[in-house]
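Hi all, posting the design record for the shared folder.

TITLE: backbone redesign
STEP: 1 of 1
STRUCTURE INPUT:
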């Protein structure tokens, strides 16, 4: 991918492509670090995309806080293992994250790799400026 990714439609297409290529991936969102939806895969309702974004932002924020407090450095990825699913959250550009929900039998390494490749392709082109209050 060589052009700048600017539209939500382009981001949604990239997320849908990730889901179609990696069978264990169920849903995906690109979000601002404060939890706002930037892009969402086709199978998510707006409400579910917003909920997933809020949860992912919370986990990423907690992980960053732990990294700072305990000297762990920058957070590369947060993975939550649940009974029936995995939640992956990774940084994806300035002020932006990629969150993926995958089946519980997913190949964790493969999902992490595919997420890293997607971020590598588009991460420098997507960023979310901090909100000003």
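Okay, here is what came back for every position:
SEQUENCE:
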């Amino acid at each position: 991918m060589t052009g700048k990714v600017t539209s939500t439609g382009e981001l949604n297409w990239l997320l849908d492509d990730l889901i179609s290529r990696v069978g264990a991936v169920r849903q995906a969102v690109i979000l601002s670090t404060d939890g706002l939806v930037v892009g969402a895969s086709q199978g998510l309702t707006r409400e579910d995309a917003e909920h997933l974004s809020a949860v992912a932002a919370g986990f990423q924020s907690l992980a960053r806080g732990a990294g700072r407090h305990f000297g762990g450095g920058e957070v590369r990825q947060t993975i939550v293992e649940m009974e029936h699913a995995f939640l992956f959250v990774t940084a994806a550009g300035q002020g932006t994250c990629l969150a993926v929900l995958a089946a519980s039998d997913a190949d964790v390494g493969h999902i992490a790799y595919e997420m890293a490749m997607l971020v590598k392709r588009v991460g420098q082109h997507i960023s979310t400026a901090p909100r000003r209050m």
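COMMENT: The chain is about 40% helix and 25% strand.
Let me know if anyone wants the other runs.
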